[in-house]
Specification:
Leucine-rich Repeat Variant, 7 helices
């Protein structure tokens, strides 16, 4: 089964592995499916998608990753912070200087 097809599999472990497999640098076609995975009710899926978006390197992922900084799952929030730090987008630096 190909990773894009596996994103819709009924098995949680298969969906996690598919999200992880899509995290290749420069894989632009994987960005939208990974962003959709960020809306999964399963924290494990959101974490895998967040990490993969960080490895992917797409600037289109910056705002969805910023939104994950408020995720209810702490592992997702941590993954989003690491991913954003690696992307180095100006919006990330602007967040660091904003009062909370």
């Amino acid at each position: 089964m190909r990773p894009f097809q596996a994103l819709g599999d009924g098995n949680l472990s298969v969906r996690i592995a598919a999200n992880e497999a899509l995290g290749k640098p420069g894989s632009a076609e994987a960005t939208d499916p990974l962003v959709r995975s960020l809306r999964s009710p399963a924290v494990e899926i959101r974490k895998a998608a967040t990490e993969s978006l960080g490895r992917n390197g797409s600037r289109a992922a910056v705002q969805p990753l910023i939104d994950r900084l408020d995720d209810p799952g702490w592992r997702v929030r941590r993954a989003a912070a690491y991913a954003l730090g690696g992307l180095g987008d100006q919006r990330t630096w602007d967040l660091c200087s904003m009062p909370r």
